[in-house]
Fold this sequence. Notes:
GO molecular function: hexosyltransferase activity
Helix content: 40-55%
Number of helices: 12
Domain Glycosyltransferase 2-like: 5-117
Order of helices and strands: EHEHEHEEHEEEEHHEHHHHHH
CATH superfamily of the largest domain: Spore Coat Polysaccharide Biosynthesis Protein SpsA, Chain A
Protein name: Glycosyltransferase family 2 protein
CATH topology of the largest domain: Spore Coat Polysaccharide Biosynthesis Protein SpsA, Chain A
Organism: Shewanella decolorationis
CATH architecture of the largest domain: Alpha-Beta Complex
Radius of gyration: 20 Å
Shape: globular
Structural class: alpha/beta
Oligomer: single chain
Keywords: Transferase
Amino acid sequence: MKVGIAIPTYNRKELLNGLLDSIPDGFHIYVSDNGNFVTDFLKNNHRVNNIVTHNVVIPMFSNWNASIEAAHGCDYIAITSDDDTYEKNAYAVVSKYVSEYDADVFIFGHKYINGDSAVLGSYCPKRLELHASPNGLAEHFLGVDARMPSIFLKKTFLDEIGYFDDQTFTITAADSELIQRALLLGKVLYVPEVIASYRVWEGSLTNSTQATTKWLTEVDLWTKKIASLAVSSFSESTKNIYDWRLYSDEIFARNLLAGLSILYKQKSYKEISIHLKNNRIPQYASIKTKIRISKYMILACIKRLYGA
């Protein structure tokens, strides 16, 4: 049985080296080198099983797909950014559960770390649970807390449902859409063990684009895809176990809220009003989230009124 880690990388040799050093023995490693920045360096690393090199830079999500395509003969796989890391016991934990349980998707826990590798927080399933389709989606129905380095998918299942949608998404949502697609269609095992660290950067692409209409448009495309998939894949009684109006509006609202938070921290009070004006009001979002959105709107008005 081959358990693999697919790594899409782009010109970050030192971070990639840190990831490779953290991966325990036992995992098969596959790399897609976007722009041919690290291939020569990797040729000296005997632990890397396959390298796909792109001499011309390709779109981000296409590179993620290329890393999966490099994993020939792999039985289970995680797709990991080149700045993430793994725990020393990750292989022992993952191999134990993929051997003992018949599941398509394995959700483990992860830490959130910053650029200095300080721990900011964590996510971990509360208990060991096996869910048949479509019940595995419930825990991540209104937002995806699991992250790619701590999600292992059966490769044949991934081949069946498809990889990242690199035609629809360009800046966000491709990973969340794939995760929710897998949770909706597959048999899912939640495992209460932390195996990886997911890095969060201040000033990253997420921070620079989350308060944009483009970001929210792609969020809407993500939720429409998942809701449509549920409608086409399940019977009336099964697909109605989820409230799809709440689903699409709450996820939109949470992303809108995250963008407003970024603008407020930047003291961009006028842009808060513009951002709210340019995007739809999520009618079916939870009252709690709508109140938090209203709070930013009111605070921004007060700050502008008093010249803060």
